[in-house]
Amino acid sequence: MTSKHAGRSARTKPNPHVGSRFDEFLDDEGLLAECELQAVKELLAMDIKAAMDAEGLSKSAMARRMSTSRPALERLLDPKNTSVTLHTLQRAAAALGKRLHLHLSNA
């Protein structure tokens, strides 16, 4: 007996994730929290960069406004670097004339 899928026999164990939600898959694999953190950091970095571009701010000028170094700003704008502190995010927001808002939501 053959399966509908080429190269697979009817005895092949079905994939337990077929039909499940992607979040459930990531949670089952122990990756959900890490992926969510990465996504939040990417969005924050994009928002900060967009606000800098809207004001015509260079990275050096933004670093000066934040009273930080250019390498520290590079880490903040790096979407893969999730080690940014709330203090740094607040300073970036203030340097752009904005406020940082955080909230908790139900899982």
Describe the protein in words.
By secondary structure, the protein is mainly alpha-helical. It has a domain at 23-95: Orthogonal Bundle (434 Repressor (Amino-terminal Domain)). 53% of the residues lie in helices and 0% in strands. The longest helix is centred in the middle third of the chain and has 24 residues, at 32-55. The termini are far apart.
Category from helices, strands and their pairing = mainly alpha
Low-confidence blocks of residues? none
**Which architecture of the domain at 23-95 would the CATH scheme give at its second level?**
Orthogonal Bundle
The helix fraction, in percent, is 40-55%
What's the average pLDDT? 85
- Reading the helices and strands in chain order gives HHHHH
Strand content: under 5%
- CATH class membership of the domain at 23-95: Mainly Alpha
Distance between the termini: 44 Å
CATH topology call of the domain at 23-95: 434 Repressor (Amino-terminal Domain)
Give short descriptive properties of this protein.
0% strand, 53% helix, mainly alpha, 107 residues
Task: Give me a quick take on this structure.
This protein has 107 residues and is mainly α.
List the helices and strands and how they pair.
Blueprint: H1 22-28, H2 32-55, H3 59-66, H4 70-77, H5 86-95
Helix pairs in contact: 3-4
